[in-house]
Amino acid sequence: MDFEDTLDGYLHDSEVVESFIDGVNVDDPQLDDAAVDDLTSHIDIIQMYINDFRSLRDTSKAEKNDERVTVCEDALTRLASLLSQLEYIKQNDEESKSLAKEAK
User: Fold this and answer.
1) 24 phi and psi, to 5 degrees?
2) Rounded Cα distance, 44 and 39, in Å
């Protein structure tokens, strides 16, 4: 796993995820099927990066590369925040759809 490639991919993909989050009413998402697919994909991608950066952080610690350790820890903090927001959206979307079904 290459540190620079992972970092570049993470920076791009996290911007895509942030844009998705910004375009959604997080408290009442009402996502269509395509948006639900996007949401699921974003969650999977964020979880992949979390695993990658944990591994890179451990490698960087073993190499005593403090700069990379810091970059990895900052990325993990941002990824955890994005994952939390995505899971909040997913939960609210599922609850609103469940309530809509009950109302019918």
Assistant:
1) -120, 140
2) 9
Query: Taking a C-beta distance cutoff of 8 angstroms, is the pair 72, 65 a contact?
Result: no
Model pLDDT for residues 13-34, shown as the tens digit of each residue: 999 999 999 999 888 888 999 9
User: Whole-angstrom Cα distance, residue 103 to residue 54?
Assistant: 44
CB contact set of 89 (below 8 Å; sequence gap of 6+): 21, 24, 26, 29, 31, 39
Contacts of 69 (CB under 8 A, 6+ apart): 57, 60, 61
Give how far Cα 75 sits from Cα of 18, 27, 58, Å: 14, 26, 14
Q: What is the pTM for the complete model shown?
A: 0.89
> According to the model, what pLDDT value does residue 62 have?
95
Q: What is the DSSP letter of 89?
A: H
